[in-house]
Design brief:
The protein has 489 residues and is α/β, with parallel strands linked by helices. The protein has 2 domains: 270 residues, Glycogen Phosphorylase B (Rossmann fold), CATH 3.40.50; 205 residues, Glycogen Phosphorylase B (Rossmann fold, 3-Layer(aba) Sandwich). The chain contains 19 helices and 17 strands. Strands 5-4-1-6-7-8-11-10-9 form a 9-stranded mixed β-sheet, sandwiched between helices. A 6-stranded parallel β-sheet has the order 14-13-12-15-16-17, sandwiched between helices. Helix 13 links the parallel strand 13 and strand 14. It is globular, with a radius of gyration of 23 Å. The structure holds 6-O-phosphono-alpha-D-glucopyranose. 6-O-phosphono-alpha-D-glucopyranose binds next to loops. Pfam families: Glyco_transf_20. It comes from Kitasatospora aburaviensis. This is Trehalose-6-phosphate synthase. Belongs to the glycosyltransferase 20 family.
Length: 489
């Protein structure tokens, strides 16, 4: 790692706008002939950054696997664009962080600790237990954040705006400010934020560092007011910071950080066009064939512990057990795409999801009716086809920063779709009025909501879907990004 103080006296970068995130806009794999194959990702940040159309903007991200590392090493200063890769007209600096340090920071701290804290996922009688292994991971997390701060400090033009993303990078804002006080720094949390009594499961010094790390930004932004206020409450409880809940500011150690709320919406134009391409039509025909003239309950998730897929299946099972009129008249289409398979908890969870799906099919299935269709391989066009077909969409996370599936389904739905939505999803703040709200832990209430959705009159469903789609697209990704940039200026 270089010397941050050198950057302070001599800022040499030229980027007026920078984004930093763990996962970048591109990833690499090694093709059979040994060359690097590049894949471009999508999402809010990608379309957001494209909105400013500034060729000097730089995206700093981490190399996630071996092929990424090779690409980063072979590129001058990790700048993939300068190595001739087609990164979508964008400048991308990919950081080749030592694999062990990366794994400890990403799997150990970000995904097994901070993610668990913010989503309230611990079974507390046994976890967490912060011992020596955690301290090694925490050191790695600090080094990983320092590597980002160093790269950002090197790339940023004087006075540049830097948008740091998510819980992987909670220390980077303060580290960057120390190196480059001239910069305008924003931090954005895409997750929920834990309430103070749960946040304080973290060791005291770690809890303090996470908060003061983010307070190093000029502005700390969240997907809903609820998460912004939870962050403020943690600052008050842990740091004794002064909090203005109306103005949404946190003052600590003589500096004030503004809090912001930007509820990322669905990209209507993109979705509507994409959902009618031939590959989606083809998959829609196949799904229709499998479903016949039955009703559908659709869910699409990454297989995250927070997504609550198991209780969702239990609710569907309860529906079939208690309301036999639905036998042979409904199909649950569930897509549970792989996520974070390095973590044992995630692998176990995926196994439980598959097991329960098989149990439900054994309990109720007949020669001509498969009550639950589960797919675990990622297929975006098939997801869009299922969105179009859904009579009911089930989105029941334990807790979720936003949940874009809840916003995407109403936008592409062909005939209107009832949305069963957890009150613990960030999206509930905007969609709650026209959704069927559920307590995600209440399996019976969720089953009842599925029944209500399945029996909702067609015109009511269509009306609600129209309003849901309007609310879901109120802040498209490009505007979401530009608003944050404007607010920093
Ligand atoms: C979800 C969260 C984001 C997070 C991302 C990381 O999408 O909403 O807050 O950045 O997961 O996922 P990854 O696959 O990179 O671990």
């Amino acid at each position: 790692m270089g010397d941050l103080t050198t950057e302070r006296s001599n800022p040499t970068g030229t980027a007026p706008v920078l984004v930093a995130s763990n996962r970048g806009p591109v990833s690499f794999s090694t093709a059979e002939d040994g060359t690097l194959a590049l894949r471009r990702g999508g999402g809010g940040l990608v379309s957001g950054l494209s909105a400013i159309g500034d060729p000097d903007a730089v995206w700093v991200c981490a190399a996630l696997g071996d092929a990424d590392r090779r690409a980063a090493r072979e590129a001058p200063d990790g700048r993939l664009d300068r190595a001739g890769h087609d990164v979508g007209g964008q400048a991308v600096r990919m950081l080749d962080i030592d694999p062990e340090t990366f794994a400890r920071a990403y799997n150990g701290v970000a995904n097994s600790t901070l993610w668990f804290v913010h989503h309230l996922l611990y079974a507390t009688p046994t976890a967490p237990a912060f011992g020596a292994a955690f301290r090694t991971e925490w050191q790695a997390y600090t080094a990983y954040n320092a590597a980002f701060a160093e790269a950002l400090a090197a790339e940023a033009a004087p006075g540049a705006a830097v948008l740091v993303q998510d819980y992987h990078l909670s220390l980077a804002p303060a580290l960057l400010r120390a190196a480059r006080p001239d910069l305008r720094i924003g931090h954005f949390s895409h997750t929920p934020w834990a309430p103070p009594e749960y946040f304080r499961l973290l060791p005291d010094d770690v809890a303090e560092s996470v908060l003061t790390g983010i307070l190093g930004a000029d502005r700390a932004a969240f997907l809903t007011r609820r998460w912004a206020l939870a962050f403020a409450e943690c600052c008050a409880a842990v740091l004794g910071a002064e909090v203005d809940r109306e103005a949404l500011t946190v003052t600590h150690a003589g500096r004030t950080t503004r809090l912001g709320v930007h509820g990322l919406g669905a990209d209507a134009d993109f979705l509507r066009e994409r959902a009618h391409r031939p590959d989606v039509e083809e998959r829609l025909a196949a799904l229709r064939e499998a479903v016949g003239d039955r009703r559908t309950v659709v869910r699409v998730d990454r297989t995250e512990l927070s997504k609550n897929i198991v209780r969702g299946f239990q609710a569907y099972r309860h529906l079939l057990r208690t309301r036999p009129e639905w036998h042979d008249r409904v199909v649950h289409i569930a897509f549970a795409y792989p996520s974070r398979t390095d973590l044992a908890e995630y692998r176990d969870y995926t196994a439980r999801v598959r097991e329960l799906a098989a149990e439900i099919n054994t309990e109720f299935g007949t020669d001509s009716w498969q009550p639950l269709i589960l797919h675990v391989n990622d297929d975006f066009p098939r997801s869009l086809a299922a969105y179009r077909l859904a009579d009911v969409a089930l989105v029941n996370p334990i807790r979720d920063g936003m949940n874009l599936v809840a916003k995407e389904v109403p936008v592409v739905s062909d005939r209107g779709c009832a949305l069963v939505l957890s009150r613990e999803a960030g999206a509930h703040a905007e969609l709650g009025e026209d959704a069927l709200s559920v307590n995600p832990y209440d399996v019976i209430a969720t089953a009842d909501a599925l029944h209500t959705g399945l029996t909702m009159a067609a015109d009511e469903r269509a009306d609600r879907t129209k309003r849901l789609a309007a609310a879901a697209t109120a802040l498209p990704p490009q505007q979401w990004f530009l608003d944050q940039l404007d607010a920093l200026r």
